[in-house]
Amino acid sequence: MLHEPASEPLGKDFAIAYKTHLGIWMFVWYCVFYAGFVGINLYSPVLMEKIIFSGLNLATVYGFALILVAVIMAIIYNELCTKQEKLLEAQANEEESK
Predict the structure, then answer these.
(1) Residue 37: enclosing H or E segment and its boundaries?
(2) Nearest residue to 88 via CA among 19, 10, 7, 9
(3) Element (H, E) at 15
């Protein structure tokens, strides 16, 4: 393992404000979803034993839903940020060429 200086960034990130705003809102919504899981376990743990789908109880279904929602949100975040980066980079290049 070589101890070299950190590599230089590839370029200016024009979408940093958009990414930050979107990331915070997605984090807040995921926290609310997760808080529902914690709240059910805290206030009504017996409810987690109820069979919901195909012999699986609510705890298992909700747990898998938490994982699935996180993956889906990551894909959405990546797509939206990539689209915004390309749009803002194109606008910046257009302004530079004027």
Answers:
(1) helix 16-43
(2) 19
(3) none
CB 14 within 8 A of CB 85: yes
- Alpha-carbon distance 44 to 40, whole Å? 5
Sign of CA dihedral 49, 52, 54, 59: negative
Give tens-digit pLDDT for 12-62. 777 899 999 999 999 999 999 999 999 999 999 999 999 998 999 999 999
| Residue position matching structure tokens 């959405």 | 76
Q: Please, what is the end-to-end C-alpha distance for the chain in angstroms?
A: 46
Total-model pTM: 0.79
Distance in angstroms (rounded) separating the CA atoms of residues 54 and 13: 46
Tokens of 62: 């909700």
- Domain boundaries defined on the chain: 16-93
- The single-letter code of the amino acid at 84 is Q
DSSP state string for 16-28: HHHHHHHHHHHHH
For residue 9, the model assigns a pLDDT of 66
